Amino acid sequence: MSQILSTSSSRPVPPQRSLTMTFGSNNLLSLLLGDHDRHLARIELKLGVKLACRGNRIAITGPAGQVAAAEAALAALYQQLERGEAIDGPKVDGVLRMMDPANEPRLPLSDLPAIHTRKGPVGPRSAGQANYIDLLARHEMVFAMGPAGTGKTYLAVAQAVAMLTSGKVERIVLSRPAVEAGERLGFLPGDMKEKVDPYLRPLYDALNDLLPGDQLTKRMTTGEIEIAPLAFMRGRTLAHAFVILDEAQNTTPVQMKMFLTRMGEGTRMVITGDLTQIDLPPNTRSGLADALETLEGIQGIGVARFNNSDVVRHALVGRIVEAYDQRYAAVKEHARERQG
Questions:
Q1: Within 10 Å of residue 4's Cβ, how many Cβ atoms?
Q2: Percent share of the chain, pLDDT over 90
Q3: Contact 237, 219 (CB under 8 A)
Q4: Once rounded to an integer, what is the mean pLDDT over residues 144-171?
Q5: d(Cα 22, Cα 13) in Å, to the nearest integer?
Q6: Tens of pLDDT along 83-105?
Q7: CA 299/CA 288 separation, integer angstroms
Q8: CA-to-CA distance for 10 and 109, rounded, in angstroms?
């Protein structure tokens, strides 16, 4: 006679909880659910809860902590709909990212900072972005470092557009090192605008997303919005402007000092970059790294550091960044072992 043995796991089972949320508008609730309940499915997958909608109610079942997180996420998304904002997959992912206990956002979801533009508010989609938006509002100069896809450039441009349209600055100046390892524009075909446009395209993309096309064209024609390579900054004083230097890891210390000292009365500056993506010639020190070592801690300067958990582009981008980081760490460790 065979004997059936049962074993029990030593891991404690988290206490289960159920609650039901009631929503006032069926129209908004349908937007909260998404087509074929796809927003609910995202929340279930991320938080490990069970969601069931009946009428104007959503029942949440699962571990107590996860149920509380789902309740807060649904409430935050519904509040966005009540304010007239649209929600989509990335916005749902952003709210869920803010609910990750490892990120510990400073404020409740309902109190998170936002940048208010003519096309609607731009809110944070990670704890790092919430801190960054807060720094942009409070500091005259902000450095932002981190991997691709964390919103460093986009949020800086959003803050610039918001301040321009509200009259807090008179113009926006956007700049980048024109090429990855120096500014050898003469080798490119076309006039100066055609030479530098490919390197400044990410800035154009952000502006196109945040301003109506006719306004963008008009403001660029009048000089209210200026996009120029870093070499064009020398000798200028930029007053009452919002100035952004993108891809700053590819500046030299001399270029960085030149740029920072262009700051005039009533001006805000944001310097963004990724210190893991330096494309300068060998043995050339990055101006961004040099500036941080020199200036961090000075009153009036804010520093935002993003990590892989702040990647808000495609979900795969975060996994790609993480894979490269792990590989480089393994290579460095192997090199240390060989030297030892």
A1: 4
A2: 39
A3: no
A4: 92
A5: 28
A6: 888 888 888 888 887 776 555 55
A7: 18
A8: 35
